[in-house]
Amino acid sequence: MKDADCQAQVNCECAAQTSAADRARLDAACAVPVLGFFGSAIFWLLAASLLSLIASIKLHYPSFLADASWLTYGRVNAAATSAHIYGWASCAAIGIGIWILARLCKIEVQCPLPLLGALKLWNLGNLAGIIGLLAGQSTGVQYLEYPSYAALMLFIGYGLIVLWGAVSCARHKLCKLPISACYVVAAFFAFPWLFAVAQVMLVFQPVQGAAHAVIQAWFAQNLVGLWLTPSALAACFYIIPKITGRPIYSRSLALLGFWFLILFSCWGGGQRLVGGPVPVWVQTVGIVSGFMLLMSVASVALNLHLTLTGSFSHLRVSPALRFVVIGAIAYTLASLLGCLLSLRSVASYLQFTYAIAAQWHLMVSVFVGLVFTGSIYYIAPRLARWEWPSAGLVRWHFWCTTLGVIGLVLSLLAGGIHQGISLASPDMAFMKVVQSISPYLELASLSVIMLTVGNFAFAFSFFLLVVHAGKRRTEPTLLDDDMTEESAGAETNHE
């Protein structure tokens, strides 16, 4: 049943009835910590891009920087992945989550010191972790490579954020949380649980035998499934209705997707262990859970599509909407590809190939990355009280990023399929397989270069925004300068 009226009624308790003066007050209160998290996120995005570029080149040109022990492939790749997840994606998720809670729950950040302290600890933890990884102090556990001292700083910093969120939400009770707030709250409380359990059972007091692999797969699955994915979906369910001026099509459908995500993501780690030395039922539960998660994906895709229906013209002009919608499409594609790769018949060919890396990039770099980028494009001007200074930089960033991620995913996927088929052939020598996929890796490196260029344009544009460079704009910065004034006001009129 279409219940847009019900959603609008729920929103009226929160942002929909908030006056312009109230929104300005809420934005001003959280501007410093949120912009701080956004600035940190973009800094770590640049660091991750440069490290990823070095790692990518080393795959097809091993002698590149071969004399630098700090820049061996194993160290650089681990540092790039950690900087991407804990630096860029996590900082952006925290900043977006704080802003959405402030807007929807009318939470005014009266004392930003805990959030600023958390920001400093989080950045120190990431800096110490990256230096530790490049120095060879990795724990060897996937996505938990940071040394213990860096992980402890991250945990304490995040504890300050959870403390702030719990106290703030307790003072602002709502009879019904809007769907975006539901996703933010779930993500904010899932991360410390996941991180603490994994650190204790995999690093500080590691379990033995097959249990170690099962817990590690559980953490790897849910770091994305219960931390980054809900944060990105919260942004989708908030920003798309705001830009289009239309309420979410169905709150009931949105809640269905929310609960399917929460219930089945926890069990999906087993699909990473297909064919491994763990009980078969663990693998089967993971595969089935992955397919059950498609119910959540389908409900999200249908809900967002019906919300956008009749407003697709905004995609031509709004940079925030373009990034968010492309990211939302990638969420569906990444979930379908993940289920396909988990099938035993497919995994027997592609499990240890670059196809797995392609699916990871489709989920994390495209879905999460583009949605967070679009969110920053939407939120930052409202906090800085200044529009993006250059539409040209925005367009350059969009096309470099979009073409870069498409090229990266397609090259790795095609290379992974070729690699899997070649490895399955008994007549193909291993070194010939390595040499045969070199063109795909070279194309991936070119794609990473495009991404890096786009990310530097994004960083420069954000810097100009924060320092209020250029002439003050009276309307949003749009991708199409010929857009009419009525349509140009869509991003501000439907607050």
Question: What does the model show?
Answer:
This protein is mainly α. It has one domain: Cytochrome C Oxidase, Chain A (Up-down Bundle), CATH 1.20.210.10. It has helices at 4-11, 20-60, 73-104, 113-134, 148-171, 179-204, 210-244, 251-265, 280-308, 319-342, 344-350, 354-384, 391-424, 430-436, 438-466, 485-488, 490-493. Helix 3 (73-104) packs across helix 12 (354-384). The protein starts with a helix and ends with a helix.
Basic shape: globular
CATH architectural name: Up-down Bundle
N-to-C order of helices and strands:
HHHHHHHHHHHHHHHHH
Query: Taking all residues together, what is the mean pLDDT?
Result: 87
Provide the number of structural domains: 1
CATH superfamily: Cytochrome c oxidase-like, subunit I domain
Radius of gyration computed on alpha carbons: 22 Å
CATH class wording: Mainly Alpha
Termini separation: 26 Å
| Poorly predicted segments | 1-17, 482-495
Largest sheet: none
Q: Could you say which structural class the secondary elements and strand pairing correspond to?
A: mainly alpha
Number of strands: 0
Helical run tally:
17
Considering the chains and any ligands shown, give keywords for the structure.
495 residues, mainly alpha, Cytochrome C Oxidase, Chain A, 17 helices, 0% strand, disordered N terminus, disordered C terminus
